[in-house]
Specification:
The protein is an alpha+beta fold and about 230 residues long. The protein has 8 helices and 10 strands.
Length: about 230
């Protein structure tokens, strides 16, 4: 399933604000689960030495979604691995080599890792002196999202079927109506949706949707349950 968010009330009533594909919803939840940020906005996998656990979900997430991994082999040598095919190139300190993009590249290893360590919210793995850093483009394709969720379900108690809805806050639900649709790509921002006719909501639910003081979520919930929730909120 996918979703759209539409504006409620006013001259733009029914206007599509955003659409969410199933892959985008799955990617967002997977990222939140694997990063597992605490109140300090740091990953739960972060250890006292500043490095993240090598066996945690966060590293497994990067192995699926990141483009490259840079591994420090020694004080004077690093290896860059292209994760899509596991091809690798080794760089010695300050020595120019041709990179994956076909252009000359070099790295000053100590300076590079000093900058990474100086970054408060760094995400780095490995061990001291043999660190690993991920980078490049993030693969958000449906295939990558599916592979990530297979990994999450294999290594945790999370089930993807519990994360099929776009994560919303109460303020989102007060100002926008989120509707489950078959294909989010059929909807563009600004497109008008006649939601009252399409949904045929009971009058009590429709009034609650239009009331900006109530947060209403009708996605995947039988209408009679939504109606009871509205009565409870009042």
């Amino acid at each position: 399933m996918a979703e759209i968010a539409i504006k409620i009330g006013g001259p733009e009533d029914g206007s599509v604000v955003e659409s969410f594909t199933d892959a985008r919803i799955g990617y967002t939840h997977a990222q939140m689960i694997c990063r597992n940020l605490g109140d300090d906005r740091l990953p739960a996998d972060r250890q006292s030495n500043g490095l993240c656990r090598n066996d945690g979900l966060l590293r497994k997430w990067h192995e699926v979604h990141s483009e490259f991994r840079l591994d420090r082999i020694s004080r004077d040598e690093v290896e860059i691995v292209r994760l899509s095919d596991k091809e690798s190139i080794r760089f010695q300190n300050g020595v120019v080599r041709t990179g994956f993009n076909g252009r000359p590249q070099h790295i000053w290893i100590e300076e590079y890792f000093s900058r990474v360590y100086a970054t408060p919210r760094r995400v780095m793995f490995g061990s001291t002196g043999y660190e690993s850093v991920y980078g490049g483009r993030t693969d958000v394709s449906g295939a990558a999202v599916d592979a990530c969720w297979e990994m999450i379900e294999r290594h945790s108690l999370h089930d993807r079927d519990d994360y099929r809805l776009w994560p919303t806050g109460r303020l989102d639900l007060k100002h926008f109506l989120f509707i489950s649709v078959e294909d989010a790509q059929e909807f563009e921002p600004g497109q008008q949706v006649q939601w009252r006719d399409a949904l045929s909501l009971p009058s009590a639910v429709e009034m609650a949707v239009e009331d900006r003081d109530q947060d209403v979520d009708i996605r995947g919930v039988p209408i009679e349950i939504v109606t009871r929730e509205m009565a409870w909120q009042r």
